Task: structure prediction
Amino acid sequence: MRWTQRLGNLVSGFYLTACYIFILLPVAVLILFSFQDGRLPVPPFHGPTLNWYITAISNDRLMAGLGNSLMVGLSSSALSVILGFLAAYGVSRYEFAGKRLLQGIIILPLAVSYLLVGMGLLVTISSLGLGPSLIMVVVGHVVINMPLAFAICLAQLGEHQRKIEWAARDLGASTFRVLTMVTMPMIAPAMIAAFCLCFTLSWDEFIIAFLVTRFDVTLPIVIWTMLRGGLNPQTNAVGSFIFLCSILLLIVVELLLFRKRS
Amino acid sequence: MTGQPHLDIANLRKIYSEVTALDDVSLAVEQGAYVVLLGPSGSGKTTLLSAIGGFIIPTSGRIGIAGKDVTTLAPAHRPTTTLFQDYALFPHMSVASNVGFGLKIRRVRGADYDKRIKGALDMVGLEGYGKRGIHELSGGQRQRVALARALVVEPEILLLDEPLGALDLNLRRQMQDELMDLQRRTGRSFVHVTHDQEEAMALASLIVVMNKGRIEDMGTPKRIYERPATRFTATFMGESTQIAGRISGGQNGVFNVATGIGHLQAVGDAGDGAEVTLILRPENILVGTAGDVGLGQARIREAVFQGAHYRVLASSESGGQDFVLRLPPDARVEQGMQIDLSCQSSRLVAVAR
Amino acid sequence: MPSTTTSDNEKLASRRSTLAGLAFSLPAVAWIALFFAAPLVIMSVYSLMPLAGDGAFSLDNYRHFLGEPAYVQAIWNSVLTTAIVVVISLLLAYPFAYILAYKVPKRWQRLALACAILPFWTSYVVRSYAWLLVLAPTGIVNWVLMSLHITDHPITFAYNPGATDLGFVHFFIMLNALTIYANLVQINPRYVLAAQDLGASAWKSFIAVTLPLSIPGMTVGAFLTVVLCIGDFITPQILGGNKELLLPQVIMMQIQRQLDLPMASTMSLVLTLIVAVVYLALQRKMRMSRL
Result:
């Protein structure tokens, strides 16, 4: 039945291409018209020029937002990975009652929408009389990202690693030594990958940041306010830049998590 | 044995929720012995090894090493090191760092550190391998690194968990020789777990045969093979012909045993009237009437050439008894051939049924 | 030396293990309890204390919320939109994932997958904005249509519920393709071979073997779609043109315009309840032997 196979392959090819076009179209348009030499990021395309990127860099509010996003991203990711790793170690290496319950609590935030997390924090700071701040964004991002870091570390702390830790203990190492000389160096690639993933998700996150900040805001919120001004190539430039950074981080993750495995 | 035994295990029990892994195990070993824990899977040999190493806490009982009670101590605090089945080398460290890990923990530094690592690597035949990564090594080389790592910290006892299982036959024989050599040179006690009785006989100064959480028999390889204490031990240590019977008198360790093929003289430890099984190794069955115990006539059922001998299965004409014996490679063997069988009474061993 | 005769040793060891295990996991658990669970409790309390009330607990907020036609319409819009998005995304994503898993050569699969989820890594805001670019009256779709003289004035693709649906489907095709793909590559190919060996056609073996075994992947994808879609504020806000408000938009209005946190809490909790109901309905189907 070769012709049916041929037909099947042809149809598959078309469908695949159509899907890719649909998926990549907005991003392609975004990036293309960030180089637009003109006032509107719409066809026809003139250029390319880096004008809008330069304008974006000179935009103080944008740069402040970028700085805040970096700060929030780095601190929340670091916290997420540390807490997630320690919890994964505790759960995978020790037996105790209520272990399953604790595990369930840790991954609970994965099952709810960011809106709920953000609302919870907003209501909390309001009831405590605290004002909006970037610290709460860090707190919220740890809530949503730490379960992921936990899951990634847990997947790496399997039987194989456990046996090697036993060997280290057999040779006289205390728990602290085992962690610092054996466990963490061994799963370092996964921990770094988890860090990058958490950073990317924090970097892109809007709703929690929107709810708990007012004046010091993160980059996605600055973009949001820029949207009031309609279609603007500067917005394209910023969006493309965010996208590019995320991709770069992901390439790092790919190299760390997947290459090391062989 | 002078003074206290080096490894002193008393009434060790380990009970999991439904399984008794160790059932009242007691063992006393002098220093410098090569002990092999031998048994099938589930016999408790690995549980016992883990208990000595500190990876399992026993339910009750006591373990003493070099006079110190270590029963509740964590592995890090015991004077033992373990060679794990899959070596468990640190993949992110070089060979030298692996070997030196225990030294680093014990704060050995500088020239002393380098010297001891070099000494350990030389001892296992890996001079100059210090800078290599673990992934560059073959299986046999990795095992040597693991050995060096375990021995460089000079433990009282080295525990080996089925170390030769993953190796092919030639490599296994070679490693057996090297292990024996290492043990003699370092003078340390080794406790080695295996299910391979040939390996046990090749290496051990003391074999401990275990079954279902208990010690069946304990002794030198020769004694265990020739004079097994239990039927299980006899079967585990090699092939044998087994003849059921009852003791009807005897003295000075020589008994008269009533069996299906007649009254036989056998040796062993049992009481009058006891139901016994007589154990006879294949190499001890003689064709003809040269032996002082006659075994009657048998017909050859099957003969398989094994290189150095024929392995022959024969059945007695009367009494329904099967024999497994050996014939020289140039003997005339035909199926259905009738032969007379006999043996020496000193080779016919009675064990409890 | 005396020997220990009870399992005191074991009890000591297990107590040490419990302490260590708890010490390691407690920070993470405490964080979640403090900054996620406790806020939920506070939200629940808030929802029971209406803004205009006298500080006493009452279900007024809930009554008001579920009694007001505009709000109920918003709930309905959200549920309907989410349902449509789930169905369309699954239908479109399944063949996509199938082709990726079985037709694309193994060497290229990782790369193909990475390209397929590329837009995943743009910010929500940026992604919706990008669709605005595409669908705007001066955007590329209209430009192509007019250049080809299919129409002579721009069609309003944006600023309506259809655009919102499109924006959602765009995102969730990627998500579902990912989960379905992960499921498909994990199915032992011998099952299909066995079916064909016994005489089944390619289609039959797909229906009888592959499809049922890929249900966990579809279910997980559907659940994630529900969670993320029903709580999304950005996509409808940017693309929807305020035509038919969805629940998150109504919630945001409570916060920003009415400054009515209790009501917003009530609405958020109801939204979460809907998700919880969906979870309970789907959870059995989400199990997989090795996910």
Remarks:
- Chain A touches chain C through 84 residues (CB under 8 Å).
